[in-house]
Amino acid sequence: MQLDEFISNFADLFDDTDASEITASTNYRELEEWSSLIALSVIAMVDDEYDVTLKGNDITGCTTVEDLFNLVQSKA
Amino acid sequence: MAFLTFDGVGIAAMAAAVPSHVIKNYEYTEFFPREEVKQVVDKIGIFERRFADANTCSSDLCFAAAEKLIEDNQIDRSEIDLLVFISQTPDYRMPATSILLQDRLHLEKTCMAFDISLGCAAFSYGLSVIYGLMQTGHIRKALLLDGETRSKVYSTKDRKTAFLFGDAGVAALIERNEKYGKSFFSIHSDGSLGDLIKIEGGGYRHPSSLETLKERVVDEYGNIRNDEQGTMRGGDVFSFVIMNIPKDIKQTIAKANTTLDQIDYIVFHQANDFMNNHISKKLRLPKEKVPSTIAKYGNTSSVSVPLTIVSELKDELEGNKNLLLSAFGVGMSWSTSIVPFVDCKISEIVEV
């Protein structure tokens, strides 16, 4: 599982946020476009791409995109 | 393990009623900016819903559906020996709404009647209870009434739930007949997830008070509700569904000794389009086998499965059809059933 690929999959879930704004160290919940709807998309993407089921708390418990990547990797 | 099999019981006829008042979700902008509403609506795929007025209860919608069912199928009311009413929006805390419906529908006093208080998964639950009682051989005909006015349950100022729910009522006539063959029910409960969808106040644990009725901001998004309105942890519900529903569907199909190819239609609880599409995709279900009413009626809780059958399969149920019903929700409780439909008669939807 590659961090770059995860970041790219993650960035694809946003419509109005430029992919360049999203890096490993981005605190995603501070992005203007972040919402509980995007959280659902994250759960769906992680299920599709990595066959891992994240919970709501997993998403609110992580800070950066890399934290989330590490969590998904630990569950894979 | 609650995996139940019945033989020779089936749904002979169905009818449904919806309120005439249409809510257009794009226009539901009293409390949120138009652009934000559009984003939510496009994601959940719910464009219209029906809202009952202040004087209309779940039971009224079910009553209208039941009258239509009885009239269209010339049912002899004196032969109805069992009435089950499914709802979490009953008329009163007591008596049970089913009992009042026995009288309103002019059924005999020898009719057995009770309520089942379960949410989205309840239609299959109700069927399994009725099928079991029917197999005793002493009940001629049964009515399953399933109604909800979830529009009255959730805060209009909580964007997590404000755009999802609608109202409807369904009536189904259940009979014994060898022609139906075998039906299968897989039924589950997990009370450790009781907080995922909940109304905290107004029951006997936290009785109704000025405190439970106080509106307050409940999260970092500024959503507002009181403790007598429903809450939902959407992300956790979604995780629950991903983890449990596809697995239960596959297991039920295997235990029923059948295959997906032999199932004519898969009717899901209409939660929201995003979630339903995800499950369909995960199970690689062909779109034409998965009818949907989510766009026009929204999430009507336990009514959504039978309402989708009445609305979308009205002209498709001639002859023998095998339906798989999958529903999940508050509890959490979930059910998968494989039920044969044989020349099921479906009435036009009534507007109330």
Keywords, separated by commas or semicolons:
heterodimer, A: 76 residues, mainly alpha, 4 helices, 0% strand, B: 352 residues, Peroxisomal Thiolase, Chain A, domain 1, seven-stranded mixed beta sheet, 26% helix, 27% strand
Describe this structure in words.
The complex is a heterodimer of chains A (76) and B (352). In chain A, 54% of the residues lie in helices and 0% in strands. Chain A is mostly helical and 76 residues long. Chain A has one domain (3-13, 23-75): ACP-like (Non-ribosomal Peptide Synthetase Peptidyl Carrier Protein, Chain A). Chain A starts with a helix and ends with a helix. By secondary structure, chain B is an alpha/beta fold. Chain B has a single domain, classed as Thiolase/Chalcone synthase (Peroxisomal Thiolase, Chain A, domain 1), CATH 3.40.47.10. Chain B is 26% helix and 27% strand. Chain B is built from eight helices and 18 strands. In chain B, strands 2, 5, 6, 7, 8, 17 and 18 form a seven-stranded mixed β-sheet that branches. A five-stranded mixed β-sheet of chain B has the order 1-9-16-15-14. Chain B has a two-stranded antiparallel ribbon with strand order 3-4. The radius of gyration of chain B is 19 Å and the shape is globular. Chain B starts with a strand and ends with a strand. In chain B, 49% of the residues are buried. Classes of the chains: A mainly alpha (76), B alpha/beta (352).
Low-confidence stretches of chain A: none
Give me the CATH superfamily of chain B. Thiolase/Chalcone synthase
Q: Number of helical segments of chain A?
A: 4
Radius of gyration of chain A: 11 Å
Rounded to the nearest angstrom, the distance between the terminal CA atoms of chain A is 9 Å
Give the percentage of residues in beta strands of chain A.
Answer: under 5%
| Overall pLDDT metric of chain A | 92
Largest sheet of chain A: none
- Roughly how many Å is the radius of gyration of chain B? 19 Å
Task: Please state the second-level CATH architecture of chain B.
Answer: 3-Layer(aba) Sandwich
Fraction of helical residues of chain B = 25-40%
Order of helices and strands of chain B: EEEHEHEHEHEEEEEEEHEHHHEEEE
Helical run tally of chain B: 8
- Classify the oligomer: heterodimer
Element string of chain A (H = helix, E = strand)? HHHH
List how many beta strands of chain A DSSP finds. Answer: 0
Strand content of chain B: 25-35%
What's the mean pLDDT score of chain B? 96
